[in-house]
Structures are given as structure tokens and as C-alpha cells.
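Re: [ENG-882] Designed sequences occasionally contain unexpected residues at chain ends

Forwarding the minimal case from QA. C-alpha cells:
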């Protein structure tokens, strides 16, 4: 199935690469231990917990380990559309968008 054929609106959540990076940025031990991470997630992504979101990112293959925190979003990701870690679609940046 091509990306054009996927109906992204059928998914409940839609995270841009920047939103994925913002969540993963909070995966460092200091914000986790000070509960900054849980406050960030509950404020910006109600109904989710940090570990649940990371599980979705891992299942979708959009999380790269490293960066001194919880990782970072893989290159080329435009949006991650998902319901949970078993129902997701990764929308990639089109080459035409990159070259413009």
C-alpha cells in the first residue's frame, strides 16, 4: 500500500518528529527522577504515560537510541500516526519536500 492510500485520519494520535523528540528528550534520568517527565507527558499527551509512548515509538521503528536521553526520532519521519503499539503508520518526508 502506498502512503497516498493510507487514511491517516483513522488513527487517534498524530505526532510530528518534533513532538516525538520532545517526549524522548524527557527520558533522561534527571527529569524522570524529578517527575518532570510524567508532568510533561500528562500535560501534553493526556491519557498516555512516557513508557507507553516509547513502546509505540519502538514498535513503529521511529526511535533511535542515544543522544544522552531517551533517544531521538529517526531521520525522514514526518508524522507517526497511531492508536497504540500495535496500530500505527509512519508518514515519511517526501524527497520533493527535502529538496525544496
Amino acid at each position: 500500500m502506498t502512503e497516498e492510500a493510507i487514511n491517516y485520519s483513522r488513527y487517534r494520535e498524530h505526532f510530528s518528529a518534533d513532538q516525538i523528540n520532545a517526549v524522548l528528550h524527557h527520558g533522561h534520568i534527571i527529569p524522570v527522577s524529578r517527575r518532570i517527565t510524567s508532568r510533561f507527558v500528562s500535560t501534553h499527551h493526556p491519557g498516555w504515560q512516557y513508557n507507553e509512548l516509547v513502546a509505540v515509538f519502538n514498535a513503529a521503528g521511529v526511535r533511535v537510541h542515544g543522544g544522552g536521553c531517551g533517544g531521538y526520532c529517526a531521520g525522514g519521519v514526518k508524522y507517526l500516526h497511531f492508536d497504540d503499539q500495535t496500530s500505527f503508520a509512519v508518514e515519511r518526508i517526501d524527497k520533493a519536500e527535502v529538496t525544496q
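QA comment: On inspection the terminal residues look reasonable. The chain is about 40% helix and 20% strand. Proposing we downgrade this to a documentation issue.
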